[in-house]
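Q: Predict the bound structure with S-adenosylmethionine.
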Amino acid sequence: MLSRSLARLVRRNRALTCAYYLIDDWRARRRLASGRIETRSGRRHAELDLDASLAYVEGVVDDYLGYAGRDRFAGRLAEIGPGDSLAVTVLTLARGAREAHTVDRYRTIRDPARETAILEGLRARYGCAATLAERIHEHAGSPAETFFTRTDLAFDWIVSRAVLEHLYDPIAALDAMATRLAPGGVMVHRIDLRDHGMFEGHPLTFLTVPDRLYRAMTVGSGRPNRVLAPEYTAWLRRAGMNGGVRVTRLAGVAGTVGPARWDALDAAARREALATVATIRPRLAPRFRALPDEDLAVAGIVLVAERS
Ligand SMILES: C[S@@+](CC[C@H](N)C(=O)[O-])C[C@H]1O[C@@H](n2cnc3c(N)ncnc32)[C@H](O)[C@@H]1O
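A: Predicted complex:
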């Protein structure tokens, strides 16, 4: 009872919330340093029933193909941050990939019975062979930031969903991925730029925390890194690859949008997001206060980059 009231008190107070994340992140860094990579965070399928799990997996895979404008996967694929199931990776194999690698800084705890049921469900729907999972090479305990600098493999596809926002250095990771992308290869990353429930109240409260403090609250635990849409757009331009950044969510607006360019989004939704930004702008940390309203109003994107 006391601990629940204490937790409520902490959540309602920004300074206490920051203090909680500082301690929690310090503990996460100690766990990682001692080689303990297991985590319960990122467990999506634990919360879904079987039909919802299968629908999620199919939706993610359809999205990858749709965003890339291709009909099938091919060659060697890497999925970053598979979370608590290999089902997305298995389905990419069933739909054309020859070999797959999963890359994860942590090892998300899986429910073996649920995982078996999801893979059986995919087999029933797609007639895929039980041996597909044998073509997956799992690299747990390998952050994307270092995996792609150390491998000499070339990839035809590199994909992720709800992952790049958790990387401690997503731009360095993208640079490394670009060097390992085969000619004609494509990367698709769907990135959720929200605060993942870190703070109560205004959805952009996490952007008010000074940079050094925020990093110490997040770098070991994989909490959102606050790398926002303009940094991904700048990376794509600098990398000199074909592709684009499209908006999938807006700050303070429920549900998803697009994916579309800012200008092509519903005008009322854009106004609502800009109004959300206006109510917190004076309190933002200096780096974010310097950004245009439109950049702060984007709360989710999909990044596609192709090597010609
Ligand atoms: C929110 S989960 C998303 C899981 C899955 N893609 C999905 O759609 O449900 C984030 C995943 O990113 C992984 N992750 C976090 N930091 C990472 C890093 N630096 N390198 C690789 N994976 C990372 C987590 O362990 C987890 O598997």
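A: The longest helix spans residues 14-33.
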